[in-house]
Every structure is written in C-alpha cells, then in structure tokens.
C-alpha cells in the first residue's frame, strides 16, 4: 500500500534504536525525508547511514537532547517545517512512588509530557497553514492499563494523552491529526531494562524473566520494531486524515478489555 507521503519531511525523535528507529525506517521506506535525533551521536549516525543504505532516503542526524529548549531549537533548525512529527522519549525509571522526589516527577513530566507538547506547539501552526500534518506520540500501553512499578510513566503519559484528546479535535478540519501509539512489550532495550529488577528479586537471569514474559503474552512473543513502524507509517499517511485523537494499543493482546 502506498502511504501517499513520498517527499514529505519528518522529524522522528529518539530514533537511533528501538521503536523510534522502527518508525524512522518505515517512513524512509515510504520516501519521506527524515531528520532523526538522539543524544548519542555515534549510534545516531550509524542508524542514519543504515537507513540511507536500506531505503535511499535523505536522512539528517541531529544529536541533541530534545527534552531541553536548546535541543529542541537545534532539531527544529534542521527541520523548521515538518509535515510529520513523531514524538518519542525514554520512559522514567521503575520503582516505588515513595522513593521519588519532586525532581524525579518534574523530569518525568518534562520528558514525557511537556517536551512533546512543546514540539507540537512549535510545528502545528505550520502544518495547519499547509493543510497537511501528522503527529504521532509514542506513549505506552500503561496509559490504558497502568503498570504499578511505572507510576511516573503512567502519570506523565496519561497527561499527554489528555492534552492530545482536546487539541486533536480542534485541528483535524485542517487535515492535521494527532494520534498515539501505545506499545506493550517489544524487543527493545527498555523492556530488558524493566526486567532487571524482577530478575534480581527472583534470583533468575534477565533472559529467563524475558522468556517467561514472552510466553505469558497472548501472542507468545514480544513485538518487533518493524511492526511498530508500519503502524506509525499508517498514522502518518495521506489515508489517515479521518483518524485523530486515537490510542492504538500494540501489546499482543495483553490488555484484557472490551474497549
């Protein structure tokens, strides 16, 4: 299926690896011109070169921290008028809320709620004026089904979801949409990191814990970044203009609900 976005320009945040990389690869495969970002310059440039070789797309790598005003300014200077914005950032650490300071909470809210909002604020009016815009936020399945040890993520990402629910209905008439992808367990460093505490507590290896979790999932496995990227590409496509303010859970069926 041709997504109808060849020649469009996209910013994909936190895309040197994991889910962000999956989104960048899928968009590049559709002929989108990419500006990708991450904090680590070496890994980011390696990913950019991989995408160029695999897809032939134009890829600009901007090493920066998008959770800071300086990082966002650097990213937007490289792509001031994106047609597509994919917001993504590493999630807050797991733990017990009794151990989290106000600084911990402020960082979680800044990284996973306010930073996406600031990038939307910087780009959405240009999208409206051009009568095309696709914004995708990578959040978490915890928005739909909270994960006890990820309280900061639950709260910050739910806040972003609430903001998007209101704004998305105001701008869709201009062919600008905002939707959220809610990943469950995917084969990423993040899933491995969250398994470390459980492995230590149970006296097992991380691989044992991960294998057990794969089998407990209704799909019998974790998702792949390629699957995730295709879903992102659809939300960014010319065919998705009637879909906005939605939350697509991608978790292999782990969320056990009717709605």
Automatic annotation (TrEMBL):
Source species, domain of life: Bacteria
Membrane-crossing residue ranges in chain numbering: none
CDD domains named in the record: BKR_like_SDR_like (cd05344)
SUPFAM superfamilies linked: NAD(P)-binding Rossmann-fold domains
InterPro entries referenced in this protein's UniProt entry, alphabetically: NAD(P)-bd_dom_sf, SDR, SDR_fam
Family: Belongs to the short-chain dehydrogenases/reductases (SDR) family.
Protein name per UniProt: Putative short-chain reductase/dehydrogenase
Taxonomic source organism: Oceanibaculum indicum P24
């Amino acid at each position: 299926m041709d997504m109808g976005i060849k020649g469009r320009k996209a910013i994909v945040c936190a895309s040197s690896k994991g889910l962000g990389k999956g989104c960048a690869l899928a968009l590049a495969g559709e002929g989108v011109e990419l500006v990708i970002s991450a904090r680590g310059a070496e890994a980011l440039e390696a990913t950019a070169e991989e995408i160029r070789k695999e897809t032939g797309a134009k890829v600009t790598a901007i090493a920066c921290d998008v959770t800071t005003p300086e990082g966002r300014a650097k990213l937007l200077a490289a792509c001031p008028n994106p047609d597509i914005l994919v917001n993504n950032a590493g999630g807050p650490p797991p733990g017990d809320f009794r151990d989290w300071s106000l600084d911990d909470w402020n960082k979680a809210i800044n990284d996973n709620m306010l930073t996406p909002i600031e990038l939307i604020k910087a780009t959405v009016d240009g999208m409206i004026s051009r009568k095309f815009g696709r914004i995708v936020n990578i959040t978490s399945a915890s928005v739909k089904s909270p994960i006890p040890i990820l309280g900061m993520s639950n709260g910050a990402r739910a806040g972003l979801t609430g903001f998007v629910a209101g704004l998305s209905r105001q701008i869709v008439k201009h062919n600008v949409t905002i939707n959220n992808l809610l990943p469950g367990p995917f084969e990423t460093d993040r899933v491995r990191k969250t398994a470390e505490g459980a492995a230590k507590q149970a006296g097992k290896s991380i691989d044992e814990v991960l294998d057990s979790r794969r089998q407990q999932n209704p799909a019998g496995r974790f998702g792949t970044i390629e699957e995730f990227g295709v879903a992102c590409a659809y939300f960014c496509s010319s065919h998705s203009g009637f879909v906005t303010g939605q939350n697509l859970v991608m978790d292999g069926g782990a969320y056990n609900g009717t709605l």
